[in-house]
Amino acid sequence: MATHLTGDTIPDTPMPTLALQGLSTAPTVSPNEANAIAQAWIDAFASAASSASESPSTAASNILSLFNPRDAWWRDLLVLTWDFRTFGGTKKIGDFLEACLPKAEIHGVRMRDGSAKYETPYPDVAWISAFFDFKVREGKEEGIGFGIVRLLPIPKSNGQQGEVDWKAHCVLTTLEGHSSFPEKVAPFRDTNPKHGNWVANRERETSFADADADPNAPPKPHPNGSPQVLIIGAGQSGLGVAARLKALGVSSVIVEKNGRVGDNWRVRYEALCLHAPVWFDHMPYLPFPSTWPMYTPSLKLANWLEFYADALELNVWTSSNITSLKQDPETAKWTVTINKDGVQRRLVVNHVVFGAGAGSDKPQIPEYPGRDEFKGEMFHSTQYKRASDHTGKKVVVVGSCTSAHDICVDYYQHGIEVTMVQRGSTCVQSAERLWHGLSQAFYPEDAPSPDIGDRVAASFPQYMATGLNKRVTSQIAELDKDLIESLHKVGFRTNLGLGDTGVSLLAANRLGGFYLDNGGSKLVAEGKIKLKSDGKIKSYTPRGLLFENGSELEADVIVWATGIGSPLDNVKRLCEPSVLGQLKAFWGVNKEGEVNGAWRDMGPKGMWYMTGSLALCRFHSLHVALQIKAIEEGFFGERYSLEE
């Protein structure tokens, strides 16, 4: 059966339909008209913003007059607030503008050529979207901003029937760079030839050989002493932010406990394959080749990450473990002791970036009575390697989301009897249909890069887009109807996500709870992967698991695919109580729909957490790097943060 998830309050924001605006049909708009309408709105916005230093309230009022009074949204990523904020409604937008416009001094506003488009994503929805570039004041520096606006048709007051005004429904503004510190990419790449000294320079840069290991000696300054930033973990999170920092001229070193870059993917189960298509997963500065398969095998990704670190000349210390991480309460600098290949190293850095993954490095197995009685083999899904290790045995996999399905499929394909135990309902959507729709909307395969797609996707903030997500989820559910009904027939319980919005809010709130089907659901529906979903687990038995309804499930092997724990476990393992007491909430969304804690400071000065899918890491690695660069250069502003 399909169930409704409870426990998270999700605002029921309607889609901005024509009927909601008071229109019965969509207006006819030519490309030239769309361009002129968008240009007029952006010109009016620029004029109003330019008066903010003289009269903030007047400027805010004039900008608000450009918005739909009944349904208005503004999402800002750092450029005006130095934070991640979403403002819903003209009152909140007005307060934000009055507070932030005078300091921002928006100027140089220009619509991006060819960006204006009239779009009708549904027969009952129409808007004009356009991109614009602008600059803001960052102390003595200039910040480079990028914006997206979507304009809705609104009936003209006292106008003839069919005449409309175009008012903003949603605006995104995001920080793209600092004018005085451009990323060192073409045309700002390094132009100095390295005749014979490149290897020596790289060895010196990577080793930080002059960083004094004597804890009683003062730290030596960069460049040969300590880096400015220490990054924990050489997965896509750590590598992405290291690449961004290097391009901005900020020195960093990545500490990786494994022996090779990419081992965080190599140590996972061999059958693992990404569930997102390749054009969604490109990393900063270096996209995957056009010959790359649509869905990347984990071992192939691991090798790519190793190549990426080498090609972008990132400083990585492998086989290295942090043995001490302490912050000086007076200077806020971090003293880090690292066991590198058996040698103790000490670094004193300004920033620590956790790139240690989206979950705990030691996820826990749920506690049930009788654990010591079970005679078989038992482990967490993060320890699973390959099905052939259990040939001829009965396997039970507890869990019904992505890892559970992947592992069960692997066992089935190796001829091993496997049973999936479903404890709660799962949001199931076919991967092909989800990505087909998402690719069309944000990430077309033929796009030269995913950068614009990242920004367009970000311009649909979570709580603004609930109506849209509900409609998309409903459409996918209808297309998946036969698949879902076949699952229900065998007792597999499904849901449509939080507030019936699909997978996005589940990922942002719970880091899981869904399965993007690429074949596993059919095997469950056909009974090739056995299913037990008729009762709660009560305890272990010597032969398997006992359920509250009195039934028993025999197993030689139990795999617990029950979640990966909290990312904060990685922080708590290293930091002192004085630091932990300063931590902000992490992950899950706040009342504005923004993810807590990630991609901006975590509370303690100079502590950051970089995490997420490859797409989120690609997009937000720039935000993390730009914040660190601004702090290092002394022009980081005051955050206009949400008051909880």
TrEMBL record:
Region annotation (Disordered) ranges: 207-227
Keyword Lipid biosynthesis in annotation: no
Segments crossing the lipid bilayer: none
Any Pfam family the entry gives: FMO-like
Oxidoreductase found in the keyword field: yes
Keywords for the protein's UniProt record, in alphabetical order: FAD, Flavoprotein, Oxidoreductase
InterPro entries given in the database record: Auxin_biosynth/cation_transpt, FAD/NAD-bd_sf, Flavin_mOase-like
GO molecular function, a single term: NADP binding
Protein name per its UniProtKB record: FAD/NAD(P)-binding domain-containing protein
